[in-house]
Amino acid sequence: MPELPEVEAVKRGLDQSIVGKHVTAIEVMWSKIMRHDDIEAFKQSLIGQVCQRIDRRGKFLLIYFDTHVLLSHLRMEGKYFLCDKEQPVHKHTHVILELDNQEELRYHDVRKFGRMELLEIGQEFQHPSLTKLGPEPTQATFSPHVIKEYLSGRTTAIKNILLDQRMVAGIGNIYADEILFDAYVHPEMSAAEITDEEIQQLYYSIISIMQAAIKAGGSTIRSYANMFGEAGHYQAYHQVYGKDGEHCSRCGTIIEKTKVGGRGTHFCPNCQRKRGA
DNA sequence: CACTCACCCTGTGCGC
DNA sequence: TGCGCACAGGGTGAGT
């Protein structure tokens, strides 16, 4: 389940492994990965182009070529691998970009949830998936004030707001739970009931958890690995995600698991109190 | 507009 | 050992 820190690690891997290389051929084995009806047109647009740079917005990867940009979302289990042409193709490999020097960039996705779409450069800024995104957590335009504005008048649970990419981009289920624990906020707290003090704390927790996770190369829970097949290390710092039944590191209370907005949610019932009704 | 929920997928892990 | 089923979850789109 790549979230911002994991996608950032993939981005850095792509930076090192495919920038400057050119696409000689393309194979698409599972066409639903591609948001295009016309796979041939997709191939024709990309073949022959050189990869110029890699960018990331929230959990989206932007792989820039000469005239087009490949917008890619890994969703739950999407992965990119660079490998030699001779290596056997895994059954969950769905797209192959053949590169120079007998190399291939392979997209692998067990659950086939990931999506990619080729756009003409410039179009990406009008793409609905990207225009809807809020600021990056580390961007100066993200501030406690932005959070406050976003929460006012909303009745939904604070966790749903963190998962909503419009306020701030890149938080997924794991980091939402970790952030709320760090900020001493109950995941089901109604957005409008969050105090200014808690908003301030949430702001700091969002930034510090995301930065620490990026530094650790993300979290590996089930299957996440970077371009080089390496696991992330941030899972060693998880305080609540996947810790239900274990003791809270701060107070010893048993961590509970529940569902919020249909997502598995982990929290400490003592550190994260629900106020009011 | 705000909110909820089904959908897309397959491997894993549980209960029996 | 094996079968059936709930579960995992991000974004999208339909429905209320």
TrEMBL record:
<dbReference type="Pfam" id="PF06827">
    <property type="entry name" value="zf-FPG_IleRS"/>
</dbReference>
<dbReference type="InterPro" id="IPR012319">
    <property type="entry name" value="FPG_cat"/>
</dbReference>
<feature type="binding site">
    <location>
        <position position="92"/>
    </location>
    <ligand>
        <name>DNA</name>
    </ligand>
</feature>
<keyword id="KW-0862">Zinc</keyword>
<dbReference type="GO" id="GO:0003690">
    <property type="term" value="F:double-stranded DNA binding"/>
</dbReference>
<dbReference type="InterPro" id="IPR020629">
    <property type="entry name" value="FPG_Glyclase"/>
</dbReference>
<feature type="active site" description="Proton donor">
    <location>
        <position position="3"/>
    </location>
</feature>
<dbReference type="GO" id="GO:0034039">
    <property type="term" value="F:8-oxo-7,8-dihydroguanine DNA N-glycosylase activity"/>
</dbReference>
<dbReference type="GO" id="GO:0008270">
    <property type="term" value="F:zinc ion binding"/>
</dbReference>
<keyword id="KW-0511">Multifunctional enzyme</keyword>
<comment type="subunit">
    <text>Monomer.</text>
</comment>
<feature type="binding site">
    <location>
        <position position="111"/>
    </location>
    <ligand>
        <name>DNA</name>
    </ligand>
</feature>
<keyword id="KW-0227">DNA damage</keyword>
<keyword id="KW-0378">Hydrolase</keyword>
<dbReference type="GO" id="GO:0003684">
    <property type="term" value="F:damaged DNA binding"/>
</dbReference>
<feature type="domain" description="FPG-type">
    <location>
        <begin position="239"/>
        <end position="273"/>
    </location>
</feature>
<dbReference type="InterPro" id="IPR015886">
    <property type="entry name" value="H2TH_FPG"/>
</dbReference>
<dbReference type="Pfam" id="PF01149">
    <property type="entry name" value="Fapy_DNA_glyco"/>
</dbReference>
<dbReference type="GO" id="GO:0006284">
    <property type="term" value="P:base-excision repair"/>
</dbReference>
<dbReference type="InterPro" id="IPR035937">
    <property type="entry name" value="FPG_N"/>
</dbReference>
<protein>
    <recommendedName>
        <fullName>Formamidopyrimidine-DNA glycosylase</fullName>
        <ecNumber>3.2.2.23</ecNumber>
        <ecNumber>4.2.99.18</ecNumber>
    </recommendedName>
</protein>
<dbReference type="GO" id="GO:0140078">
    <property type="term" value="F:class I DNA-(apurinic or apyrimidinic site) endonuclease activity"/>
</dbReference>
<feature type="active site" description="Proton donor; for delta-elimination activity">
    <location>
        <position position="263"/>
    </location>
</feature>
<dbReference type="InterPro" id="IPR010979">
    <property type="entry name" value="Ribosomal_uS13-like_H2TH"/>
</dbReference>
<feature type="domain" description="Formamidopyrimidine-DNA glycosylase catalytic">
    <location>
        <begin position="2"/>
        <end position="114"/>
    </location>
</feature>
<dbReference type="InterPro" id="IPR000214">
    <property type="entry name" value="Znf_DNA_glyclase/AP_lyase"/>
</dbReference>
<keyword id="KW-0326">Glycosidase</keyword>
<comment type="similarity">
    <text>Belongs to the FPG family.</text>
</comment>
<feature type="active site" description="Proton donor; for beta-elimination activity">
    <location>
        <position position="59"/>
    </location>
</feature>
<feature type="binding site">
    <location>
        <position position="154"/>
    </location>
    <ligand>
        <name>DNA</name>
    </ligand>
</feature>
<keyword id="KW-0863">Zinc-finger</keyword>
<dbReference type="Pfam" id="PF06831">
    <property type="entry name" value="H2TH"/>
</dbReference>
<feature type="active site" description="Schiff-base intermediate with DNA">
    <location>
        <position position="2"/>
    </location>
</feature>
<keyword id="KW-0456">Lyase</keyword>
<keyword id="KW-0238">DNA-binding</keyword>
<dbReference type="InterPro" id="IPR015887">
    <property type="entry name" value="DNA_glyclase_Znf_dom_DNA_BS"/>
</dbReference>
<dbReference type="InterPro" id="IPR010663">
    <property type="entry name" value="Znf_FPG/IleRS"/>
</dbReference>
<keyword id="KW-0234">DNA repair</keyword>
<keyword id="KW-0479">Metal-binding</keyword>
<comment type="function">
    <text>Involved in base excision repair of DNA damaged by oxidation or by mutagenic agents. Acts as DNA glycosylase that recognizes and removes damaged bases. Has a preference for oxidized purines, such as 7,8-dihydro-8-oxoguanine (8-oxoG). Has AP (apurinic/apyrimidinic) lyase activity and introduces nicks in the DNA strand. Cleaves the DNA backbone by beta-delta elimination to generate a single-strand break at the site of the removed base with both 3'- and 5'-phosphates.</text>
</comment>
